[in-house]
Amino acid sequence: MSKEIVLSGIRPTGFLHLGNYFGALRNYVRMQEDYECYFFVANWHSLTTHPDTKELQHSVHRVIAENIACGLDTTKAALYVQSDVPEIAELYLYLNMLAYKGELEKTASFKDKVRSNPENVNAGLLTYPVLMSADILIHRALYVPVGKDQEQHLEMARNFAERFNHRYGEVFPLPKAFNYNSELVKIMGLDGNGKMSKSENQMATIYLADEDDVIRKKIMKAKTDSGPTAPDSEKPDYIQNLFTLMKLVSTEEVYNQFDANYNGCSIRYGDFKKQLAEDMANFIKPIREKAADIQNDKLFLSKVIKEGADKARESASKTLHLVRAVINMNY
Ligand code: ADP
Ligand code: TRP
Predict the structure, then answer these.
(1) Half-sphere exposure of residue 188, counting CA atoms within 13 Å on the CB side?
(2) What pLDDT is recorded for position 199?
C-alpha cells in the first residue's frame, strides 16, 4: 500500500527557534518514518514580507542545515526549496481563480501584516494562503504538521481544494493540520507576549543557533511572578509556557518535582529557571553544532537541495498533469 503524504514548510525569514522546533520540526522527524514526506523552504513566501534578498540565500541554506541538524533524513524525506519547483507557481495561478478577494482580506495573518506593515500591502501578501495551498496540494498531501498559528490557512487550503474538485473533478484530498498529540502547539515568547517568532523580541525567543550562555541569560530573564499563593492553583500562561518547555527538554523526574513544588507553593523560580536553562542548553548544543557544520559544507548543501528538487518535481509534475487534464488544458 502506498504511504499517506505529508507536507510542510518554513519561511527563511530568520533564525529557527523553539516554536518552529516544537510546532513543526519535531513532528517532521517523527513523520518521516511512517509517511511519504515533503518538507521545503518557503522562499517565495518570504518575499511577501521581506523584499530585500541580500540575506536570502544564506537564510535558505541555514534553514536547510537546521532541518537536517534537527534529525531530518534526506534519504527518507524530500527536502527542497520552493522556487526550485515551478509547478507550484502554475497551480497557484489556477487556485487564484477560485479564491475570493473578500475571504483573503478577512484572513487573520493578512490583517496582522497590514497592521504591522501598512506601506507594503502587496497582492502576494493577500494571496499568501493561496500559494500555501498550492504548496500543499501540489503533492496531494493529506497531513500538514504545523503550529497553531497556521490553522486558518489549512482551513482555507481545504476550501480551495474542495472548490477545485467541485468545479473540475476530484483531484485533491482535503489536507489537515497535524500534531502527534492532537492539539496544535503554540510556544509563547519568554516575556509572556504572543508567540515565539523569528522576527519579534529576540530576548523572548530562543533560537536553535543560540550559544549556551545566551540561552541561560534569556531563560533567567523570562517573565515570572511572586509565585502561587494557594495550593494546586492554575498556572498563568507565561508560567505554563516555561513548564511546557521543561516538559520538552528535561527528564520526567525533574518536571514532576518542579510541578509538585508549584502545586505545593514551595517553588523557587530561580532554581526552576536554572534547571530549565541547563537542560535547554544541553538540548540545543548538538543541534547548533551540527547545523553550523552542515552550513559550512556548501557541496553537501547543494547536493541535498538538488536531490530534494528532483524528488519534489517528480511528484509535483504528476499532480499538475492531473490538474491540466481536468481543466482541459492538455493540448
Ligand atoms: P515564524 O512564525 O517564526 O516566522 P514560520 O512562520 O516560518 O515561523 O513557521 C514555521 C513553522 O513553525 C509553522 O509550522 C509554524 O506554525 C511553526 N511555529 C512558528 N512559531 C511557532 C510557535 N511560537 N509555536 C508553535 N509553532 C510555531
Ligand atoms: N505559512 C507557513 C508559516 O508561516 C509557512 C508555509 C508556507 C507552509 N507554505 C506552507 C506551512 C505549506 C505548511 C504548508 O509558518
Answers:
(1) 16
(2) 73
Give residue 136's pLDDT: 99
Q: Which residue do the cell numbers 527563511 mark?
A: 12
Residue showing cell 500562561:
237
Protein residue whose Cα sits closest to atom 3 of ligand 2: 10
- Those residues of the chain that have pLDDT short of 50 are none
Exactly one of 186, 195, 218, 273 is catalytic; name it.
Answer: 195
Report pTM: 0.94
In 3D, which of 137, 99, 136, 64 has the Cα closest to residue 298? 64
For residue 301, what is its C-alpha cell?
A: 548543501
Domain range for 280 is 202-291
Q: The domain spanning residue 283 has which CATH number?
A: 1.10.240.10
Q: 4-26: per-residue pLDDT in tens? A: 999 999 999 999 999 999 889 99
User: What pLDDT is attached to residue 185?
Assistant: 85
Looking at residue 242, its pLDDT comes to 97
Give distance in angstroms: CA of 267 to centre of ligand 1. 31
Q: How far is the CA of 14 from the centre of ligand 1 (A)?
A: 11
Handedness of CA 304, 309, 314, 318 (dihedral sign): positive
Ligand 2: lining residues by beta carbon, under 6 Å: 7-9, 11, 42, 45, 132, 135-136, 144, 146, 150, 153
C-alpha cell at 217: 541569560
Q: Same domain for 314 and 171?
A: yes
56's grid cell: 536570502
Sheet holding 143-145, edge to edge: 78-81, 36-41, 5-10, 143-145, 176-178
